[in-house]
Amino acid sequence: MIKLVNAEKHYKQFDLNCSLEVRPGQITGLIGENGAGKSTTFKLILDLIHADGGEIEVFGKLASELTRDDKANIGVVLSDSGFSGYVTVKDILPVLSALYKKFDKDAFLKGCEKYRIPLNKKIKDFSTGMKTKLKLLVAITHEAKLLVLDEPTAGLDVIVRDDFLEMLQDYMSKGERSILISSHISSDLENLCDDFYMIHDGKIIMHEETDVLLSEYGIMKPTMEQYQTLDKKYLLKVKKEAFGYRCLTNERQYYMENYPDIIIEKGNIDEMILIMVKGERA
Amino acid sequence: MKGLLLKDLSILKTQGRSAVIIMAIALFMLMVGNNTTFAVVYANILFVTFGITTLSYDTHDNGYAFLFTLPISRKLYVMEKYVFSLLSIATGATFSLILMVGVSLIKDGYVLTTSDFAFIIGYALGSMVFLSIMLPVNLKFGPEKGRIAMIIVIAVIVASGFSISKVVGKVDLTKLYWGIREIKPMVVMGILVMIVLVILSVSYLISCKIMKKKEF
């Protein structure tokens, strides 16, 4: 669905060089801290900015050569951009009907009712949650084959986040569709994504299937002494701390069997990012 | 195109009240005075700038980024802005015409002349030239910087007009004047329309180029 091969974008103080792939039927997460290059990557995919090098393909075509029909097959949610705040949902209904041949007005209105999105209120007076739900509803009600969601969960409370995930699961249940979603808080995506890309300083520093990440990766916490005798073959990154080390491994089982005295945890993805970004090679 | 036009219309609903007030004031001016020219100019100012107004709503709150993820191309967006602005100018001219005809029917001593109609058409053509400068300038610099750029553009036009008039002032234009007078008014109008169409086309091509380069 999406393929980036060494996609480059250069700014004065930031360089992006990113390769990633979103396969049909998959939900792929792009995680990284603020300013890591997530939005730049998304903008390249959506042809909002021009690439300085590399290849960017969507539906097997160059992103810059997508037709209007191709674009109608993509649903997009951007955290910092949407319909003008001065219009109401009722105002955008005819616009969506005219823009998207496959716009499902009934499903859209049902969604508005279910997720309590007011039809006659100006969008600028919506809460953050309402705005996000509206954006997602617009993205999923025109039979898009691909969703591109940039930081959609930013600023959402638990209940809205739950609504949001429900909408995405409902979307994925209807045929072979794909989602590329980014967030700087990966716990949002842990139960949703099939695979993850971790981006830091404009580069992909890790790519792994979620199952593998949760079953084979682990965070080890050896003391200074334990660390000296440790086999460092399967340590990806190591971060020195006040009373010892924090080590990220992709062979949790190996260390559990051979070093039963060392504390080793499954760890969540946020902790893994922290070690990947702040740690050093063993 | 239809979707974009509907989007701009929904944005303009917020301007509806101002349009009604302006039309009422223009009607009042026509009823109490005989200054058709001023009333027409006044009634049309809002219509001429409608296209530019929607453009500033589009750019507000980083709106462009989302807008260009919709199934539209940059070229279509530019085309729609020109179509919308031209429709808006045509609406303004039609309203002015209705106002003038209406007032001439109910007000004693108010007689419409050919020059009144010619003025509306001339004003609409002038508005199109204005638009041909305003749209690319606003697309290039955005509504905020666009305003400053516009002041500079107007200053340059006035300054060059002034210098041209100084040069031309020394040339005897009587021949040209009598030459134009000999041409039938419809032919003059035709030539003017052609000139405006050329200006609009060049402006459109420049705007397309500006939008193609833009990043959001």
Write up what this structure looks like.
The complex is a heterodimer of chains A (282) and B (216). Chain A has 2 domains: 2-211, Rossmann fold (3-Layer(aba) Sandwich); 217-278. Helix content of chain A is 33%, strand content 28%. Chain A has helices at 38-45, 68-72, 89-99, 105-114, 128-140, 158-172, 210-216, 224-229, 252-258, 269-278, and strands at residues 2-10, 15-22, 27-31, 53-58, 61-62, 74-78, 146-150, 178-183, 195-200, 203-209, 218-221, 235-241, 244-249, 263-265. In chain A, the strands form 3 sheets. Chain A has a 6-stranded mixed sheet with strand order 6-7-8-3-9-10, with helices on both faces. A 4-stranded antiparallel sheet of chain A has the order 2-1-4-5, with helices on one face. In chain A, helix 5 (128-140) packs parallel to helix 6 (158-172). The mean pLDDT of chain A is 90. In chain B, helix 3 runs antiparallel to helix 5 (74-106). The two termini of chain B are 21 Å apart.
Could you give a quick summary of the protein structure above?
Chain A is α/β, with parallel strands linked by helices and 282 residues long. Chain A has helices spanning 38-45, 68-72, 89-99, 105-114, 128-140, 158-172, 210-216, 224-229, 252-258, 269-278, and strands at 2-10, 15-22, 27-31, 53-58, 61-62, 74-78, 146-150, 178-183, 195-200, 203-209, 218-221, 235-241, 244-249, 263-265. Chain A is elongated, with a radius of gyration of 21 Å.
Record keyword descriptors for this entry.
heterodimer; A: 282 residues; alpha/beta; Rossmann fold; 2 domains; six-stranded mixed sheet; four-stranded antiparallel sheet; 10 helices; B: 216 residues; mainly alpha
